[in-house]
Specification:
The complex is a heterodimer of chains A (235) and B (696).
Chain A (H helix, E strand, L loop, with lengths): L1 H16 L19 E2 L9 E5 L2 E5 L4 E4 L3 E5 L5 E4 L1 E5 L3 E10 L3 E11 L4 E4 L3 E5 L2 E5 L1 E5 L4 E5 L2 E4 L1 E10 L5 E11 L2 E5 L5 E8 L5 E6 L4 H6 L6
Antiparallel strand pairs in A: 1-3, 2-5, 3-4, 4-7, 5-6, 6-8, 7-8, 8-9, 9-10, 9-11, 10-13, 11-12, 12-15, 13-14, 14-16, 15-16, 16-17, 17-18, 17-19, 19-20
Chain B lengths: L7 H16 L7 E2 L18 E5 L3 E4 L2 E5 L4 E12 L4 E11 L13 E11 L2 E11 L2 E11 L2 E11 L2 E10 L4 E9 L5 E9 L8 E11 L4 E5 L2 E4 L2 E4 L3 E4 L4 E3 L3 E6 L3 E9 L5 E7 L5 E10 L2 E8 L2 E9 L7 E9 L6 E15 L3 E10 L1 E5 L8 E5 L1 E12 L2 E12 L2 E16 L3 E8 L4 E13 L13 E13 L5 E14 L9 E11 L13 E8 L3 E8 L2 E10 L3 E10 L4 E9 L1 E5 L5 E11 L1 H4 L6 E13 L2 E10 L2 E10 L11 E2 L11
Antiparallel strand pairs in B: 1-49, 2-3, 3-5, 4-5, 5-6, 6-7, 7-8, 8-9, 9-10, 10-11, 11-12, 12-13, 13-14, 14-15, 14-16, 15-18, 16-17, 19-48, 20-21, 21-22, 22-23, 23-24, 24-25, 25-26, 26-27, 27-28, 27-29, 28-31, 29-30, 31-32, 32-33, 33-34, 35-36, 36-37, 37-38, 38-39, 39-40, 40-41, 41-42, 42-43, ...
Classes of the chains: A mainly beta (235), B mainly beta (696).
């Protein structure tokens, strides 16, 4: 779950702190003309750097910027490097990226499409998502991200580490706590926990052994605080 | 899922009962079984849906709530926990289960998983165990303060283990509808059933204990609904009785083979003895003989490791014999025997060693057995009146070869034997053929030829017709009406002109009358005709033509007739269901006077207790009134007898005698009540320690 948290943190920092409001945060671009322009990496005025791979189009009527050949968005503070094959964004409003892959220090995130609602502080990967990182390898048919508090919902996740599948996986980025929504299957060591009921929930919380080994605590009774926190990700 | 918990009070009672039983003191009432303990039914599988945890190498469990603490290697399951183990047909239902030793991150095996739970229900085969606590490895559990529920059985046990589906309990007390048992240990094998060891018990579950029994082992066959006691001992009204090797009790009343024996002896008359046997195998038979009147008879035998000692004392003399097993030598077993006739007309002492060989070889067609032996015996006879004392040595020896072969369903045998005694040698040979053929439709033929000093040929033909719902007679005994004809032809040759042949024709019918209750309201009849074959009927053993007819009506009476060259007789008996009987016999033997015998017996209930206990007295007598009718004197006693019986929940004990034609016979009967190993367990387990028998 730490890795899940890392993924979400990266997304949050890269896509919200960098692209969303507050006003005045500069998105450095190679060119800001209404016409197509091609430029090299453009140093960001703030922590983000947008590096288009090809032309960059700014629609003066809508102020939507499009990078039809994609590019890279780099967050200087976290090291997040989000590459996309095509990017559209409007400052303070949204970012749409196709063929997205994000590189973290110890993890990789891939999604065919990522849609960020900067105003609402939410993001969606509607066409599937794959994440590989320390302690977690999960793929899902879709993902939703809520910023502040940072929460992620993977729909129909399948993971090899830990071995799980569920109707949905909800992750609280800050604590690393997660819910598996039933029907689910969660295997760890000797144990495989299953529940075929739609309303079943398995809460797993990362912890460490006395020897410092990462492991989990799991229970099918959930914390009320976490229930409240995950409310935006449900149903 | 329904939580299956002990009611705390029940648990406390069970625990207190077990503790009290162990301590030999009772402060608690009987254990009252809560009917809900049988819910859900034994064998009901754990839920297949809902929350499930699978423990690799252990099994699966369902629950309401689970908490897994990977950092501590443990898990806690709460609320209607139901566990099914992989390796054994065992289900554990429990309110709360704690698992420890879970190596969540590694490749640990289930062997390390440990269980700790209270108030658990374990289903093993047809048995349900409710335990106050369960501890240990999940494949080797220890249980404590157990209540055992099974087909017709309610029991408590102090401790137990459950290993690979094998349940072993100690400190066991059990009750069925009619019996109470205590056992050192109980075993519920995976193959089913129940095996008790170190068993004590009583059939007096709900009445004063008059009958106690003990056995080395008791094996319950749940399918057959029977309990077999191995090496049973009995104590009836305080009298210890050895019952032989095995006693079975089941759904029907069990007639116990009381070791009271009567036999006729040429010199001693009717010998009546009671056989007593101790745990070491020593056997004592003590009783009386009628010749001379009520002379004591004692037989004692003890054997251990092949060594044997016997003592026989009666009016004929006293014989003491001792034998000791020697070392095996040259393939032979050796013994040293000493026999002393200490009283009587043939006082003597014989001492000497002997050796015996036996070898057998079996081939595809023929089995050959050889036996041989020889001994040296010193014999000393003391002075007896004018007879001088004598001493000598005998060298008995024998050798024998026997060959048998099976040919087409027939067994052919041949024996050659030679005996040597001093300078006298006796040899002989014999052979035989024995076979049997049984055809369907109730037709059978058997014959036997034994040429070893006697030849006999038997041929039997039987045909049976049956009617009713089960015409093939596969139902309960006597459930159908039937008619049968049977023909027996027998020829025997004894040598020395003593041959005889006989033909017996027998027809019998058994007709069931409505209502069709088995055992009652039946009418049966049998007619037999025995005739000799004149051509072969020579010598004193020649068959005498004889015809008999007997008709019986259950619970109503019977009558019949018998006629032969020696005389004739006609008898009639009327019976009453409550135990009375009246009889009339008219007969004549040879050219003697006609007998007219009136007989009667009547069961009298002297005392009937509120619990169903009763004491019965059944006198019987028969008088020949013909002399009185002819004015020749008073009626003549033909028979008199008396039976005293005590019957209650323990069973029925009956002791009686019949004196007829100058001979007295004693009858001792013990009947135990039915033992039901089926249906729901009893609701109550009596607490009183005396109810569980104690060592007889």
């Amino acid at each position: 779950m730490r890795a899940v948290a890392g993924l979400a943190v990266g997304l949050a920092l890269g896509l919200v702190a960098g692209l969303a409001t507050p006003p005045g945060v500069a998105v450095a671009q190679g060119a800001a003309s209404p016409s197509d322009a091609t430029s090299d990496a453009v140093p960001a005025s703030a922590r983000l750097t947008v590096v288009p791979d090809g032309p960059q189009r700014l629609d003066l009527a809508t102020l939507v910027t499009e990078l039809p050949e994609g590019g890279r968005i780099v967050d200087a503070e976290t090291g997040l490097a989000l590459d996309a094959e095509r990017i559209r964004f409007l400052e303070g409003a949204f970012v749409e990226a196709d063929g997205v892959s994000a590189e973290l220090e110890v993890a990789r995130f891939d999604a065919p499409r990522l849609e960020v609602d900067l105003a609402a502080g939410r993001a969606v990967a509607p066409d599937g998502v794959a994440y590989v990182g320390a302690g977690l390898e999960v793929s899902a048919t879709s993902a939703r991200i809520v910023f502040g508090p940072d929460l992620v919902r993977f729909d129909a996740p399948r993971a090899r580490r830990p071995d799980l599948e569920a109707r949905a996986l909800l992750v609280d980025v800050a604590s690393g706590a997660a819910w598996l929504l039933g029907p689910y299957r969660y295997a760890e060591g000797l144990l495989t926990l299953r529940d075929d009921r739609e309303d079943a929930i398995l809460q797993i919380v990362p912890t460490t052994t006395d020897a410092g080994e990462p492991t989990y605590r799991a229970a099918n009774t959930v914390d009320d605080a976490l229930r409240t926190r995950f409310a935006p990700l449900r149903p | 899922m329904t939580p299956s918990r002990f009611a705390p009070v029940r648990v406390a009672r069970a625990v207190a009962l077990a503790a009290a039983l162990a301590g030999g003191a009772f402060a608690q009432d009987a254990l009252e079984r809560d009917p809900s303990w049988s819910e859900p039914r034994v064998g009901t599988p754990c839920a297949d849906t809902g929350a499930v945890v699978e423990l690799r190498g252990v099994g699966r469990a369902t629950y309401d709530a689970i908490r897994v603490e990977g950092d501590r290697g443990r898990a806690v399951l709460d609320g209607g926990v139901c566990i099914e183990l992989d390796a054994q047909e065992v289900r554990i239902r429990i309110a709360r289960l704690e698992l420890a030793g879970l190596e969540l991150g590694g490749a640990a095996s289930g062997d390390a998983v440990r269980v700790a739970a209270d108030d658990a229900v374990l289903d093993v085969d047809a048995w349900r165990l409710r335990t106050a606590s369960v501890r240990g490895r999940v494949d080797a559990l220890e249980v404590r303060d157990v209540v055992l529920l099974g087909p017709g059985v309610l029991a408590v046990a102090e401790l137990g283990t459950l290993v690979d589906g094998d349940v072993r309990l100690t400190g066991v007390r059990a009750a069925t509808d009619g019996y109470l048992f205590a056992a050192d240990a109980a075993h519920l094998p995976p193959s089913g059933g129940l095996v008790l060891t170190g068993v004590e018990g009583t059939s007096c579950r709900d009445c004063p204990v008059r009958i106690r029994f003990a056995a080395d082992r008791a094996t319950a066959d749940l399918d057959g609904g029977r309990l077999a006691l191995t090496t049973p001992r009995l104590r009836v009204l305080g009298v210890p009785v050895a019952l032989g090797d095995r006693l079975e009790v089941g759904a029907g009343a069990a007639e116990v083979g009381v070791p009271f024996e009567q036999r006729e002896d040429d010199a001693l008359g009717i010998v009546s003895t009671l056989r007593l046997r101790d745990a070491g195998g020593a056997e004592l038979r003590a009783g009386t003989a009628t010749a001379p009147s009520l002379a004591p008879v004692v037989r004692y035998a003890a054997e251990a490791g092949g060594d044997r000692i016997t003592l026989a004392a009666d009016a004929e003399g006293v014989t003491l014999a001792a034998g000791r097993m020697g070392p095996d030598a040259f393939g032979a077993t050796t013994r040293v025997e000493a026999v002393a006739d200490l009283a009587g007309a043939d006082r003597s002492v014989r001492v000497g060693p002997s050796a015996r060989w036996r070898a057998a070889s079996g081939g595809p067609a023929t089995d050959v057995t050889t036996r041989a032996g020889f001994g040296v015996e010193a014999v000393a006879t003391p002075r007896d009146g004018d007879r001088a004392p004598r001493a000598g040595v005998r060298v008995p020896a024998h050798a024998e070869v026997e060959a048998t072969r099976d040919v087409a369903g027939l067994r052919l045998s041949a024996v050659a034997r030679i005996d040597a005694q001093g300078t006298r040698v006796v040899g002989g040979a014999g052979g035989g053929v024995r076979g049997a053929a049984t055809l369907r439709a109730g037709v059978g033929r058997t014959f036997e030829v034994d040429a070893f000093g006697r030849a006999a040929l038997d041929a039997t033909w039987e045909r049976r017709w049956a009617a009713g719902p089960d015409p093939f007679g596969m139902g309960p005994a006597g459930a159908t009406s039937h008619l049968a004809l049977r023909t027996d032809v027998r020829t025997e040759a004894f040598g020395q002109g003593r041959e005889r042949a006989s033909l017996r024709l027998r027809a019998y019918a058994d007709v069931r009358l409505p209502p069709e209750d088995v055992g009652t309201d039946r009418l049966g009849g049998e007619a037999t005709l025995d005739v000799g074959v004149p051509a072969l009927a020579v010598g004193p053993d020649a068959a005498v033509p004889r015809a008999t007819l007997a008709v019986r009506a259950d619970a109503a009476g019977r009558f019949g007739g018998d006629a032969s060259e020696d005389g004739w007789e006609a008898t009639g008996t009327a019976a009453w269901p409550e135990g009375g009987e009246a009889s009339l016999r008219v007969g004549r033997t040879g050219r003697g006077p006609t007998d007219v015998t009136l007989g009667a017996s009547r069961r009298l209930v002297l005392r009937s207790g509120p619990g169903g206990g009763r004491v019965e007295l059944t006198p019987s007598l028969a008088l020949d009134v013909a002399p009185w009718a002819r004015g020749e004197g008073p009626p003549r006693w033909v028979r008199h007898g008396l039976q005293v019986a005590s019957a209650d929940c323990c069973g029925r004990v009956a002791v009686g005698y019949v004196a007829e034609d100058g001979e007295v016979r004693v009858d001792v009967r013990l009947t135990l009540p039915p033992l039901a190993l089926e249906g729901p367990p009893p609701l109550r387990l009596p607490a009183r320690i005396e109810g569980y028998g104690g060592t007889p």
